[in-house]
Design goal:
alpha+beta; 18% helix; 5-stranded antiparallel beta sheet; 5-stranded mixed beta sheet
């Protein structure tokens, strides 16, 4: 039987080698299979071709930083995961400082009148000082006004070389987007009391202030406490009063942070429902709280508001008295400030001079100092001295107090609400306390008010002879010069700009701020125009940048999952913030906690 014919392979390479094509070689379809599975030698050769040469391996870090300085923010973040070296270099603070300047500092500087017309308009170089970056950025959570030259130099020494500009850029970016992480820190538990215990509302009221990563809380049960917001740990704690002062409830709280940056010392003032107040000093490095002053002449009734800028303290009582005290030991002579229709001196007499010494009261204060000397008090606590006292006849809540420092004096401001023809108005009175040398304090006064805001009336389907008035007027006032912020019952805020000179004081017309979808329970604003507002049930928090672009939209804080939102049983009645965090006091069923929204 004849054999099968073999396929002829027409291969050019075979012809070149001199083969006749009739040898026993595999068919062409087997060659195709062999091509699909290259040999190990071919694979190794192909891998050598795909090796990428690292052109940056021979470059120094300084040269790479110079190259990366021409990249934008998105490119820096994109190349950061390439290698550990790239991650380290792209995180260099000097790379992010110009980006921080261009995005956050320069737009604010352009709003300064005449900035574009100066020498900077034709200059292509970035002219800035690292030590003044934070100041130029708006001070962030700084509540203080004027800072002395010596204290300012101490602050610059601390922040000049230690600023992480990438961290600052990420922080400002998160604020602008409302992105944050959320954590909850309990400050009061409900299991201390039985379900049938009769406890007044004031005893369960917790007052909070937030400044520079610290939260200060005060209540009648736990006393005065300081918390570290980063670590969520208690820093220090002290009782508010002696055992024989049972029943005294704190009603207002104020802090003075002018020494916090340089000396890590925070001054605290607490007012009580019987008209008393006291001051304490928190030493952060030693984690101690010591009593400074105690005012035990409570003759003006329950204190509603208090402001503190050592050595000056202002207090407002429910009876309508506004008192200004000095906590230094120098002799004080009070002067009569000018009076106005809203806030005047006591009828028929000048503002009260400092009360004469009372031997029985002095002995009691000495005993108090001896009793608390070992744990909370200094050796010789001094008594506050009254500079002036005003009495209001036509104002009504809400009311706000503030004290700010200027180059030549200290200004205590009173923001109040009063009824006007057909509506209500907001007034401000400045008490200018000048201290030239060692001469007695001189107190002068300036007053300004807004135009009356008409009160709307609610229409009824049934004809009634008298229209039903709608509760109107501000729910809360916040004043940090030059910004005066008021929250209204119609889910809006009103912003006023105050202008103060040595001889005059004026308030601009109000500007409505829209954005909230429910009632606003609290708000806070800084002297640089940064504000945070809180809805009544704590489910909506908004951030406002009001400097230079008052009509701009607000940013709603949107926590990262899996944080659960507030429910209907939650009560959010207070909000505070600093550079990196927003803190909300959250309460439910007798329990209270601080909800920390961390933007860092």
């Amino acid at each position: 039987m004849p054999g099968k014919r073999k396929l002829v392979s027409y291969d050019v390479d075979d012809d070149d080698d001199g083969h006749d094509g009739h040898d026993d070689k595999p068919p062409r379809h087997l060659d195709a299979v062999a091509v699909s599975k290259p040999s190990a030698h071919a694979q190794a050769k192909r891998r050598r071709r795909s090796v990428h040469l690292d052109n940056t391996a021979g470059l120094s870090d300084e040269l790479l930083i110079r190259i990366f300085s021409f990249l934008d923010e998105k490119t820096l973040l994109a190349i950061s995961p390439v290698s550990r070296r790239f991650h380290r270099i792209t995180s260099d603070s000097q790379l992010w400082r110009p980006h921080y300047y261009l995005r956050f500092i320069l737009p604010r500087a352009h709003r300064i009148p005449g900035f574009r017309a100066g020498a900077t308009r034709t200059s292509s170089k970035l002219r800035y000082s690292a030590g003044r970056f934070i100041w130029a950025d708006g001070g962030w959570g700084r509540r203080s006004g004027f800072v002395g030259a010596h204290q300012h130099q101490l602050q610059l020494q601390h922040q000049d070389e230690s600023v992480d500009w990438k961290k600052q850029y990420r922080l400002r970016h998160n604020w602008a987007r409302g992105r944050c992480a959320v954590d909850e820190m309990p400050v009061r538990q409900a299991d201390r009391l039985g379900p049938d215990a009769l406890v007044s509302v004031a005893e369960w009221q917790t007052l909070v202030k937030v400044v520079d990563g610290l939260a200060v809380t005060v209540d009648a049960t736990s006393g005065l406490r300081a918390w570290h917001l980063k670590t969520r740990r208690l820093v220090a704690q002290t009782p508010l009063s002696r055992p024989d002062d049972a029943g005294r409830q704190p009603t207002c709280l104020a802090v003075d942070d002018v020494l916090l940056t340089s000396l890590r010392v925070l001054d605290i003032a607490v007012g009580f429902d019987d008209g008393h107040f006291g001051t304490w000093r928190l030493d952060v490095p030693s984690a101690t709280i010591r009593l400074g002053h105690r005012h035990a002449t409570g003759c003006c009734g329950e204190l509603l508001a208090i402001a503190y800028a050592h050595p000056y303290l202002a207090a407002a009582s429910r009876r309508g008295f506004i008192s200004l005290f000095s906590l230094d030991a120098a002799p004080v002579a009070a002067a009569t400030p000018a009076s106005d229709a809203g806030t005047t001196s006591t009828p028929g007499q000048d503002p009260e001079p400092p009360p004469p010494p009372d031997p029985s009261r002095d002995d009691e204060d000495d005993d108090d100092g001896k009793q608390h000397k070992q744990d909370t008090a200094p050796a010789t606590p001094s008594r506050p001295r009254l500079l002036t006292r005003l009495q209001s006849h036509s104002t009504r809540p809400p009311l706000a107090l503030s004290i700010r420092r200027t180059a030549v004096s200290v200004v205590a401001s009173i923001a109040y609400t009063f009824d006007a023809l057909g509506g209500w108005s907001i007034g401000i009175q400045d008490l200018d306390v000048s201290t030239p040398g060692r001469s007695p304090h001189t107190v002068t006064s300036r007053v300004a008010s807004t135009l009356p805001t008409p009160t709307p009336t609610r229409s009824s389907p049934v004809p009634v002879p008298v229209p039903v008035p709608v509760p109107d007027g501000p729910i809360r006032l916040c004043y940090s010069h030059p910004y005066l912020l008021a929250t209204l019952p119609d889910n809006t805020l009103v912003l006023h700009l105050c202008t103060s000179t040595a001889t005059s004081l004026s308030i601009s017309p109000g500007l409505r701020l829209w954005g909230h979808t429910s009632g606003i329970s609290d708000a806070e604003i800084t002297p640089r125009g940064k504000a945070v507002s809180l809805a009544a049930h704590g489910h909506e928090i908004r951030v406002w940048e009001l400097e230079g672009r008052v009509g701009g939209p607000s940013v709603e804080i949107r926590p990262a999952p899996p944080w659960a939102a507030f429910d209907a049983r939650d009560r959010g009645g207070w909000v505070g913030f600093d550079d990196e965090m927003v803190v909300v006091l959250r309460g439910r069923d007798g329990r209270e906690s601080l909800v920390v929204y961390d933007f860092a």
